[in-house]
Amino acid sequence: MKYESYQSSLTDAKILIVEDEVIIAMALEDSIHDFGYLVAGKATTGQRAIDLAMETLPDLALIDIRLDGEMDGIEAAEKISGRLKIPVIFLTAYSDEETLSRAIRTNPYGYLIKPIRPRELYTTIETSIYKHRAFVAEEARVACLSAVTTKLENPVEQVKASLEGLVSSIQKGKMDLDDVEIILQAQADDLGQVSKDLRELNDTIFRV
Q1: Is there a contact between 18 and 29 (Cβ–Cβ < 8 Å)?
Q2: What does the alpha-carbon distance between residue 171 and residue 98 come to, in Å, rounded to a whole number?
Q3: Whose CA is closest to 126, among 3, 1, 13, 29?
Q4: Tens-digit pLDDT profile for residues 161-186
Q5: Cβ density class 69-80: b for 16+ within 10 Å, e for less
Q6: Pairing mode of beta strands 110-113, 88-92
């Protein structure tokens, strides 16, 4: 069955499935394909999930909390999100308070109780990817603003200090007009660079 009403515009998004129940994993894979996403891979253990995540670099991971082996889904999620900074959605048939509390401490983007409904799965995946991409974009914008602002700070302070020194020297009669002209030309060049950096800052702030 195709879920035409759920077709995503995020057709480049890759989803990692971490589920040790084969039938559920196959159903999730079918749903993800029907939604228009790509399946980055399927894992049944925590360690395999980490290895696959590092290999395929998915945009999001669906992780069952209870997995076979020494590492459960919560621990695997912590390691995956810690290394790749990708959103994680937990899947579980258990909703006891202790498990939920432990899962929430990993800051997941979603928490789905089995049996998972297609509409709920689609909405949670779509919302999580958009939210994460918006967060990453905002981080990049802030980093760019910080870099440009840093570039502005030194030239402005240097020009200010140089002009103050120039005024002091003129007042004390230590400079002739030729010296003043050379220094002012240098300051004009520095201010030109400051103006360029300001335009770059403006473009960054108002870039859509």
Answers
A1: no
A2: 76
A3: 13
A4: 555 655 565 555 555 555 555 555 66
A5: eebbbbbbbbbb
A6: parallel
